[in-house]
Amino acid sequence: MMIIKRGLTFVSCKTCQLARFSTVTTNYEGLLQQPKFSSEEQGKILEVLNKSNTEQLSRFDVSQSRIKNLEVWRNKKGPFKSLADVLEVDGLGVKVLERLCESIVQDNQKHDKSGQTNNGKLSNNGKNRKQYLTPILDNDRINNLNSAVGLHLGPAGISWTRIAREQNCLNEWGFYDFSTFPKKMLPTDTFQLAITILDKIPVSDIYLFEASPSISMQSTKQAAVMTSYNQQQELTSMLLALINTSPKHAFQPTQNEISHRNNVFFLRSNLSARLFKTLMGTERVSSTTAVSNLLEHAKNSVNHNLPCNSIKAEGHIIEQYYSQSSVVKELLGQSLLLIITFMELCIYKNPTALGAVLPRRK
């Protein structure tokens, strides 16, 4: 049985279903059922695929094995004349090709004079940079950002750190302890807690959480773990909504700007742990060593040997950290490392930091 649909020919049999691109139609927009790849963009994509070597192609959203297949096809049949040709390459199905094209287009659009892109992506060093921040932070907000607050939420409590862009200054640190709260709370109690926390969070241009890591199948079978995880997700959602609507924290537009704009962003999970080497396998270790190195440099100008810029901090803020219990130190430390990671990757676009979090490709 053969079915023709939108430029694709599907051949069905008892054991498999094969799909190949019809030679009759080479309209890529029809193939992906979206018009966002203009003729100019398609030309750019083909130019990249035809002229890039293995190292250059590695920076885009495509595996090494498929890069080899692209080169084999290109060496055998010559340059790609259309995106339909690319679908003939082994392993380059519609979805894979769409992701590859999107990464090429985004790389081209976000390239700036420094050779860097938004949200911690480099465009000319031969490495693949995935999106580190959700949603994407546009250039206008990057250029006008004066301060940012990192929020770390864990079972023991929530902490926040505000970094001012000028002199990379840590100018506010705080936490809220959950030890007196019951392990299981009603949504109304969680909402009241969110309002209480909101009042304590310092005002800033944007607010940053870390995206929740995936939870293992084994953990889903543990009632206590799932209860804690679900309540953290619920509290995060409430804080997101409150921050974006609070008269104190929400974006205040000028006459020429839109009235509503998101102020809450999520940094990809474990980026700060990878940057500061506090990830052992799938488990995080204490942030104390990294935080102490940063604070000692701020206090005594001691070399911290970390893949980030130095920070500034007043003496009383440093003493605030050292006067706390080990649990609170960890809370404060995690929010500090989170906001530093954001500033290094997404605002300063520090090549050393970007290289430190780059995943190793096979």
- State the end-to-end distance: 39 Å
Q: What structural category characterises the helix and strand content?
A: alpha+beta
Number of strands: 14
Number of helices: 15
Outline, from the CA principal axes? Answer: elongated
Beta percentage is 15-25%
The average pLDDT is: 78
CATH topology of the largest domain: Nucleotidyltransferase, domain 5
Low-pLDDT residue intervals, each spanning 5 or more residues: 1-35, 112-129, 215-221
- The CATH first-level class of the largest domain comes to Alpha Beta
Q: Please compute the radius of gyration using only Cα atoms.
A: 24 Å
Structural summary, described in words:
- The protein is of the alpha+beta class and 362 residues long.
- The chain folds into 2 domains: 2-110, AF1531-like domain (DNA polymerase, domain 1, Orthogonal Bundle); 139-357, Ribonuclease H-like superfamily/Ribonuclease H (Nucleotidyltransferase, domain 5).
- Helix content is 44%, strand content 17%.
- The protein contains 15 helices and 14 strands.
- It has helices at 28-32, 39-51, 54-57, 64-77, 83-86, 94-110, 139-144, 187-200, 217-220, 223-245, 271-275, 288-300, 315-322, 326-347, 351-357, and strands spanning 2-5, 8-12, 17-21, 116-117, 121-122, 133-134, 147-154, 157-164, 169-177, 206-210, 264-267, 279-280, 283-284, 312-313.
- The strands form 4 sheets. It has a 7-stranded mixed β-sheet, sandwiched between helices. Strands 1-2-3 form a 3-stranded antiparallel β-sheet, with no helix packed on it.
- Helix 2 (39-51) packs across helix 6 (94-110) and helix 8 (187-200) packs across helix 10.
- The two termini are 39 Å apart.
- This is Transcription elongation factor, mitochondrial.
- It comes from Ignelater luminosus.
- Residues 108-128 are annotated as: Disordered.
